[in-house]
Amino acid sequence: MNWKCTSFFCGTDFETREVGKDLIIEGYFAVFDSKYWLAEKVFETIDHGAFDLKKDTDVRALTNHNTTLVLGRTSNGTLVLNVDNIGLHGLIRINRNDRDAVNVYERVKRGDVNQCSFGFDIIEQKPEIREDGITVWHLQKVKLYEVSICTFPAYEKTAVQARTNELTVLNQRQKEIFSEKQNQQKLSFINKRQQKLSAAKQHKQQLSAEKQQELELWKSDAIARLRVKKKVW
């Protein structure tokens, strides 16, 4: 893919605790098979196996996607990410000497901030248009850049616009496929009709030939009978 988007999960609060000198924030930054709504009747869902932490070895933990407010980083162990059956779990070790980071910790601890988001590129995806009219994008493989603790998590406008453009193309393709199927059905009907007409014509010609043959046989038999009668007379 050639665009980057952010998704979010709401509903599971982060946990905070003190372990020795460490301040810990942990929770799930993404949950598999959850619905991440972009618009009415349009949502994304993250498939199991979408994250590859063996390749994404330098992921940052941010506040509200602000790259100047770094809370942790996987490459130095201050952010620990794991994937389990639920989703993408993260543990952030807060720097006590970073007043901004401590403030975030206190806000999460009190419940003022309890939502999250993450930034990624889509590597593989599968669109699905359901019978109820809802369009689903299954994210099968993504490249992870950052996870964020957010006040108001939301999709970037560019991501929504990109999805809108993709949806337009997808709907147009569906119409083309439907039109192609209709044309194929019409062509199949015409071919079957022609085959039936051709078979009927052949059958008619065969019957006509058989009748002509019967007539010729009848004529030959009649002539033979007349000759016999003449000889008798």
Please provide a written account of the structure.
This protein is α+β, with helices and mostly antiparallel strands and 233 residues long. It has a domain at 4-153. It is built from 2 helices and 11 strands. The strands form 2 sheets. Strands 1, 4, 5, 6, 7, 10 and 11 form a 7-stranded mixed sheet that branches. The protein has a 4-stranded antiparallel sheet with strand order 2-3-9-8, with helices on one face. Strand 4 (36-39) and strand 5 form a beta hairpin. The longest helix has 76 residues, at 157-232. The chain starts with a strand and ends with a helix. 24% of the residues are buried.
Task: List the SSEs and their pairings.
Blueprint (H helix, E strand, L loop, with lengths): L3 E6 L5 E5 L2 E10 L4 E4 L2 E5 L13 E4 L2 E8 L5 E5 L3 E8 L4 H12 L4 E15 L5 E16 L6 H76 L1
Parallel strand pairs: 5-11, 6-11
Antiparallel strand pairs: 1-10, 2-3, 3-9, 4-5, 6-7, 8-9, 10-11
